[in-house]
Design a protein that fits this description.
Length: 137
């Protein structure tokens, strides 16, 4: 990251801290909920899903924010490719896990979708804020 704009480095660090904080809050809620009578509604894969979403969100965020330094066409290509690859990877993970662990499939898919709807807007909002700051608006 030596040739990376200082604002991009700061935004990447800030996004990492934010996603880790969100994952920690969700992890605490999950730990508390697992100790209630509702434990059968929670997939045991949730801690792994949290780790997966933190890593994948930060990786895609960095790729997209780094591509903002290039021309607009490069950003569009990176955004479309990374989003498409991410969605395909998500689909493969859901299908494979559901086929392997049929008894936990519904809980897993439900948890996956909740995490997706938490981390994706976080990624998009952070990306837009950083783009506006880079453009000086």
């Amino acid at each position: 990251m030596t040739d990376t704009h200082p604002l991009i480095r700061a935004a990447t660090r800030r996004f990492l801290v934010t996603t880790l904080a969100v994952a920690a809050v969700i992890g605490i809620v999950y730990a508390v909920a697992r100790n209630t009578s509702l434990t059968h509604h929670f997939s045991p894969a949730i801690p792994w899903l949290l780790l997966f979403f933190v890593v994948s969100s930060n990786f895609v965020y960095f790729l997209q924010i780094k591509s903002t330094q290039s021309r607009t066409a490069a950003f569009v290509n990176v955004a479309l490719l990374s989003t498409g690859f991410k969605l395909l990877l998500f689909l493969v993970i859901i299908v494979v896990y559901s086929l392997i662990n049929r008894s936990d499939a519904v809980n897993f898919i439900f948890a996956f979708l909740i995490l997706y709807f938490i981390f994706t807007p976080l990624e998009v909002i952070s990306l837009r804020r950083t783009q506006h700051k880079l453009k000086g608006k």
